[in-house]
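Researcher: Let's do a round of design. I'm pasting the structure tokens now; please hold your answer until I've finished.
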């Protein structure tokens, strides 16, 4: 997962400064993060325009559902059993 984290950071360098700052802000500045994620994922996630209804719903739940609780970095680091995955 270290390679994945490095590649995301490298991809992020292609974006304007406000997108980079928004992505790095994560949940410290939710409106800025949400806007930046939309720009980033439009290039490196779903390139269908407009996004499918179900994808939009997923992002709405991610940001708007008060029962969803995210702690720490969600973009660049995995702290779960996946972080130890090897082939």
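Researcher: That's everything. Go ahead.
Model: Designed sequence:
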């Amino acid at each position: 997962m270290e390679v994945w984290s490095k590649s995301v950071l490298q991809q992020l360098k292609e974006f304007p400064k406000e997108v980079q700052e928004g992505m790095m802000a994560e949940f410290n500045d939710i409106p800025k993060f949400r806007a930046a994620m939309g720009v980033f994922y439009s290039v490196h996630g779903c390139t269908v325009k407009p996004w499918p209804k179900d994808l939009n719903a997923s992002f709405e739940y991610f940001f708007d559902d008060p029962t969803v609780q995210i702690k720490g970095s969600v973009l660049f680091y995995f702290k779960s059993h996946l972080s130890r995955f090897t082939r």
